[in-house]
Design goal:
The complex is a heterodimer.
Chain A (H helix, E strand, L loop, with lengths): L1 E3 H5 L10 H10 L3 E7 L6 E11 L7 E6 L4 E6 L9 E6 L3 E2 L2 E2 L3 E3 L2 E3 L1 E3 L14 H5 L14 H5 L4 E6 L10 H12 L17 H4 L1 E4 L4 E10 L8 H9 L7 H13 L3 E5 H4 L2 E6 L5 E3 L5 E3 L5 E4 L4 E4 L3 E2 L12 E8 L1 H10 L4 H8 L3 H18 L3 E2 L4 E4 L6 E6 H8 L5 H10 L3 E5 L2 E6 L9 H12 L20 H12 L3 E2 L5 E2 L15 E2 L10 E2 L4 H13 L5 E13 L2 E13 L13 H14 L6 E4 L8 E11 L2 E9 L8 E7 H5 L17 E10 L4 H12 L3 E14 L2 E10 L8 H18 L3 E2 L2
Helix pairs in contact in A: 7-8, 8-12, 10-11, 13-15, 20-21
Chain B lengths: L1 H15 L5 H12 L4 H7 L6 H41 L17 H15 L3 E2 L5 E3 H4 L27 E3 L5 H9 L6 E10 L10 E11 L4 H16 L5 E8 L2 E10 L16 E10 L1 H6 L8 E8 H9 L4 H6 L2 H4 L9
Parallel strand pairs in B: 1-4
Antiparallel strand pairs in B: 2-3, 4-5, 5-9, 6-7, 7-8, 8-9
Helix pairs in contact in B: 1-4, 2-4, 3-4, 5-10
Classes of the chains: A alpha+beta, B alpha+beta.
Chain lengths: ~775, ~350
């Protein structure tokens, strides 16, 4: 909403020494933010002058050499405009003038001295939409009676200042000059002046010849009046200039008046050519599939959610959004039907979102004050009579289902103090309400406040408290910490611990986008699920919610590799989504990707399967799942993983994730990934940390190497050793693998530790167990002990 | 006897001068203090002497023996030290060669900033609440006083799920946590939560990403006021952006709070003097807050006549951008290792 200082000054006397920034800042302090506050035209050193001589430039086919009288002196100026000629009154930018296009400086143009520039309107920086064709082609021609030597901007009537407000959506009342005047009145404690609604009606009655028929609940108030014998012409300067300062393009006096009144009152109006409209106006919901050609000459297909204005046969306009082509006011219009109405805000919003968001629809959407609906139609008549020579027909077509009553709220002083957390006297509260134009009855501890209908945003006690806070100054509230009982705060320690653990292991934490392309939705998983897609994605690349985080991590890998960063060891914790039969679910997932060098030494170490397995084991150990997990080769391994270098991760019999190398079909690079469903994993209980007694007697260490068939795995061997070792074997681990020691055979060497918590083991006892282990490994796994 | 002692002493002092190696030490030990060494023999011979002679010579023989041991052992230590020093100097390394790198990972800066907020609020007795990202329109809007068609919905262009328009969506604000926290609190008693998390809006440029992070705070009790809100936000902003940070309240409008405020902090770039970042105002808008609207309390089962509270919400990405000076939000979600690696150390307290 653009607020013109001149316009609002019609309704409130602001202190003369208030600058436009002062006004903007004080409005901000009561909750109305702005984008811009300053002059309407950002140009300096402009002066009016008269071209007293104009000759062709000796050295150019289009330039002219002019003598321009600016009152105090006569300037030589070279001008290239085709319309420059002797006798014109013009605007001159003097040496040093700052225009939106740059600074004007004295100079010599093709050998002739030029001491300024004769300006066009376009050069003053007025928005393109306000420019007439002649404004773009040539210099501006001022009226011939313009005084010379005066300020150029003032001569144009553009000596106004504006504030461009970004209003909150509850303050529909501020979409009017009157609303702004009331707001400023509350800030500066000034009264708002009355608006002139006076005009003369003829003795006729509109109701005799015109009928309004409201056939929908979506119209709560509809008023119509008739103005006859209007003269369509250009609007007076002040109307045009106020419209321009408010961002609306002047058209002709009649159209301009409807916009002018809308700006003043906030009530959008619509004028129909009465002769083209006929004798009946119907407001109804459109029929599904009904068609209408709107003002922009487009055919629109409508639904029953759209409200239309129609004659007896067909729709002629979209209520509150856009008029129809057939009944529009044109140059030859003589008689006008004025519509001032209130339509359902939500319906208007829906239709305007579909078709066009306009100054009018914006106001309907925010809700209107029925009193203004009446005021606007009266004001419209007054201005049409005055500036369009209209005769106003007596009577009014009136349909009103609105509640015209003001809102009355009882409020306790204590409640105000308790919510705002301030000490404030009853007198101050009453004074604030009165500045706002509210009526207050003092009932002791309680105030009875009547809120005028223009403030439709105020409905409950809390709304009134906000008003007190706004005018008192929210920023004057002194901060303190809440007086609350001391309690223990909590957070998800496990999630945080996992993140920190993985960082400690040298992995970087990424945060990538939840939205991925539908084509990737089922990648990196063998799980059966229905993916979740968006109705209105911004792009096809981001139209589906991810189930697995791995496609995102692979994208991160590719992004970095493309930038010559091949060493990528990363993890991410985030949600994975899927659709259920009734509704949706999201699970917490952890994904890891490792590739390139995992710096452990001066000689960098390339990541292999056993690195990422190490990360997995370290994490599972850390979370308390030591000795409770296994890697299984089964049909859960996604197609994107190398079938020979991958496994599913099983904890306590539950499948919680997958680990492995990316399949060569995905990438030729050595990239290793892992994904664990944390929601599943963390639901498996681990038990709390407890001290376990350890043997105080010495342990005995034994090594044994065997020759196996190549297909025997470490896990198979360890399983046999552990079973055979019994309770005296406290640990066993592989320490050497030698592949292809002979064709089809490999050697694996194991280190075993024996101990008894209650005594020192004798050699004999250890050898008994050790020999049993050797026997079992040899017989069960077809192995041979190496000498 | 005296002469004998003196002659051994003289020869010992002469011999010790030429002792240079461990082998020389072994030899000189054998010659003087060994089993049949000169000094040992002399000591052995003592038993054959008369009592008078023992009185006369015992002392000088013992003195010679002590002197021999001291001289020889001293020499031995000297030689051993020399050998050790030579060994140590041979073992000297080039300490300027590169270290054996311990792989270092970084938490994402968004996690760092989130934890800063969490730690502060946990210390003040808040529970960190984690709500769903896939939400219902009811929880995200309707129960926050934003019915269908409400104009304030315009400011949050929402991603709805396929075939679920006006029903299921990706949350556009962490304020949904307010609804969850109130509904899940069965005894409808006091609440103190913060909810950090991802949110989604149809918007994308240098300062907007379609996915970003917010943190929501909610405190409900019987006497919570705007003053409590201001004090809490002052504490929060000083904690995250530094002790010099000031907080300014401006009235504003949010459908789920009444009264509502926008909150500005002193520009951390210029310290409030005015610069291009704060458009010469000295202030930067960082969050929205207010007192929970009575309708919102009612819709989630709280009696607004008994309970009142405040809520606030702020963009964590913006906070991270301010705190670390990150100019473009898209950098955060680009996950370039050169970006993440910058956040791998302890920050100054």
């Amino acid at each position: 909403m653009l607020l013109s200082k001149k316009f609002v000054s019609d309704y409130i006397d602001l202190d003369e020494n208030l600058t436009i920034s002062d006004i903007a800042e004080s409005m901000t302090s009561v909750g109305n933010e702005y984008d811009y506050a300053g002059p309407l035209i950002n140009a300096t050193k402009l002066i009016t002058g008269e071209v007293i001589e104009c000759e062709d430039h000796p050295d150019s086919d289009h330039l002219h050499v002019c003598k321009v009288n600016i009152g105090s002196e006569v300037l030589d100026i070279v001008c290239g405009a085709p319309n420059v000629r002797k006798g014109l009154k013009v605007i001159v930018a003097l040496d040093g003038a700052k225009l939106p296009g740059g600074e004007i400086k004295k100079g010599v143009i093709r050998g002739v001295e030029s001491n300024g520039m004769i300006c066009s309107i376009a050069e003053l920086g007025l928005d393109n939409k306000f420019l007439k064709p002649e404004d773009k082609e040539g210099i501006h021609e001022l009226p011939l009676d313009t005084e010379i030597g005066i300020d150029g901007i003032k001569a144009l009537g553009f000596d106004d200042e504006v504030i461009d407000f970004e209003l909150t959506s509850n303050r529909g009342d501020l979409l009017s000059i009157l609303g702004m005047a009331y707001e400023l009145g509350a800030i500066y404690d000034k009264k708002v002046k009355d608006i002139d609604l006076s005009y003369t009606s003829n003795s006729d009655d509109i109701n005799k010849s015109f009928k309004v028929d409201i056939k929908t609940d979506d119209c709560s108030l509809f008023l119509a009046k008739k103005a006859i014998n209007v003269t369509i012409k250009e609007s007076p300067e002040f109307i045009k200039n106020r419209l321009i300062a408010s961002g609306i393009r002047p058209i002709n006096n009649v159209v301009d008046i409807s916009n002018y009144v809308m700006l003043e009152t906030g009530q959008p109006l619509h004028y129909y050519d009465a002769d083209r409209l006929g004798d009946t106006l119907i407001v109804r919901n459109a029929n599904d599939g009904e068609k209408l050609v709107t003002l922009d000459s487009q055919e629109r297909e409508l639904t029953s959610d759209d409200i239309v204005i129609s004659d007896k046969e067909k729709a002629i306009g979209l209520a509150g959004v856009m008029g129809g082509l057939s009944t529009e006011v044109e140059e030859d219009t003589k008689n006008i039907i004025i519509e001032s109405a209130i339509f359902d805000a939500v319906k208007i919003r829906k239709t305007s979102k579909k078709i066009l968001r306009s100054e009018a629809s914006n106001r309907f959407e925010k809700g209107l004050d029925p009193k203004r609906t009446y005021m606007a139609i009266e004001r419209s008549c007054a201005l049409l009579e005055k500036y369009a020579d209209a005769t106003i027909v007596g009577g009014i077509c009136e349909y009103n289902k609105t509640d015209m009553n003001d809102t009355v709220i009882d409020i306790k002083l204590d409640k105000i103090k308790k919510v705002l957390g301030i000490e404030i006297s009853k007198e101050e509260v009453i004074s604030i309400f009165e500045k706002l134009g509210f009526t207050v009855k003092d009932n002791g501890d309680e105030l009875n406040v009547t809120v005028p209908s223009r403030r439709r945003d105020i409905k409950i006690v809390e709304d009134l408290i906000e008003e007190v806070g706004r005018i008192y100054g929210m920023d004057k509230i002194e901060g303190k910490l809440p007086e609350l009982p001391t309690i223990k705060g909590t957070y998800d320690k496990t999630k945080r611990a996992i993140k920190h653990k993985l960082c400690d292991l040298g992995l970087n934490e990424t945060i990538s986008y939840t939205l991925i392309p539908l084509a990737d939705a089922h990648k990196f998983t063998k799980d059966e699920f229905t993916e979740v897609s968006l109705n209105d994605p911004m792009s096809e690349d981001r139209n589906t919610l991810r189930y697995s985080l791995l496609s995102s991590l692979y994208e991160v890998y590719k992004y970095n590799k493309d930038r010559n960063i091949p060493d990528v060891s990363i993890f991410e914790i985030g949600k994975g989504f899927m659709k259920l039969e009734d509704g949706y679910t999201e699970e917490l997932k952890l994904a890891v990707l490792m590739s390139g060098d995992y710096e452990l030494d001066i000689q960098n170490t390339k990541v292999d399967f056993y690195h990422i397995k190490g990360v997995m084991e370290e994490l599972l150990y850390f979370l308390g799942y030591d000795n409770r997990y296994s890697l299984l080769v089964n049909d859960l391994i996604p197609n994107e993983l190398h079938p020979g270098v991958s496994a599913s991760i099983n904890v306590n019999g539950t499948n919680v994730g997958i680990i492995g190398k990316l399949h060569p079909n995905v990438t030729k690079d050595n990239v290793y990934v892992m994904e664990i469903n944390l929601t599943k994993l963390l639901s498996i209980r681990t038990g709390s940390m407890k001290y376990k007694d350890f043997s105080k007697f010495p342990s005995i260490y034994k090594d044994a190497a065997f020759i196996f068939d190549n297909k025997v795995t470490n896990k198979e061997v360890l399983d046999v050793i552990k079973k055979a070792g019994g309770r005296l074997l406290v640990s066993s681990q592989i320490f050497d693998v030698y592949e292809n020691i002979e064709p089809g055979k490999k050697s694996m060497a194991y280190n075993m530790v024996f101990s008894d918590p209650s005594k020192t083991l004798s050699d004999e006892e250890v050898m008994d167990v050790f020999n049993k282990i050797i026997f079992e490994v040899e017989t069960k796994l077809n192995a041979k002990l190496r000498g | 006897m005296k002469e004998k002692v003196e002659s051994i002493r003289t020869s010992l002092n002469e011999d010790i001068k030429s002792v240079n190696t461990i082998q020389d030490v072994v030899e000189i030990k054998a010659k003087y203090t060994g089993k049949n060494g000169l000094v040992t023999e002399l000591t052995k011979g003592m038993s054959e002497l008369s009592i008078e002679e023992k009185k006369e010579f015992g002392k000088i023989i013992n003195e010679l023996r002590d002197e021999a041991f001291k001289l020889i052992l001293g020499k031995e230590e000297e030689i051993n030290n020399a050998i050790l020093n030579e060994k140590l100097s041979k073992e000297a390394i080039d300490i300027s060669l590169p270290s054996k790198k311990i792989k270092r990972g970084s938490l994402n800066p968004m996690t760092r900033i989130t934890e800063e907020f969490e730690d502060l609020f946990v210390s003040m007795g808040y529970t960190v609440y984690d709500g769903p990202e896939l939400e219902t329109d009811e929880n995200c809007f309707r129960k926050l006083n934003l019915p269908l068609g409400h104009p304030a919905r315009d400011t949050q262009d929402t991603f709805y799920l396929k075939d679920e328009v006006d029903e299921y969506l990706l949350r556009s604000q962490t304020s949904t946590a307010q609804v969850h926290a109130m509904e899940e609190n069965i005894d409808k008693g006091p609440i103190r939560i913060v909810c950090p998390g991802k949110v989604y809006r149809r918007d994308e440029d240098a300062t907007h990403s379609h996915q970003f992070m917010q943190i929501e705070g909610l405190v409900i009790d019987k006497n919570i006021s705007m003053a409590d809100l201001k004090g809490t936000l002052e504490t929060m902003m000083k904690h995250v952006l530094g002790e010099k940070t000031e907080v300014r309240f401006r009235p504003s409008y949010f459908p789920f709070t009444e009264p509502s405020v926008e909150v500005d902090v002193t520009c951390f770039k210029c310290g409030g003097k005015g610069c291009n970042l704060c458009k010469d105002t000295g202030w930067i808008e960082v969050l929205g807050a207010g007192m929970v609207h009575p309708d919102v309390l009612t819709m989630s089962g709280y009696d607004p006549k008994v309970y009142q509270g405040f809520a606030f919400g702020t963009g964590l990405d913006r906070m991270a951008m301010f705190k670390y000076g990150i100019p473009d939000i898209r950098t955060i979600y680009g996950n370039d290792m050169r970006f993440i690696n910058q956040f791998d150390r302890k920050d100054e307290e």
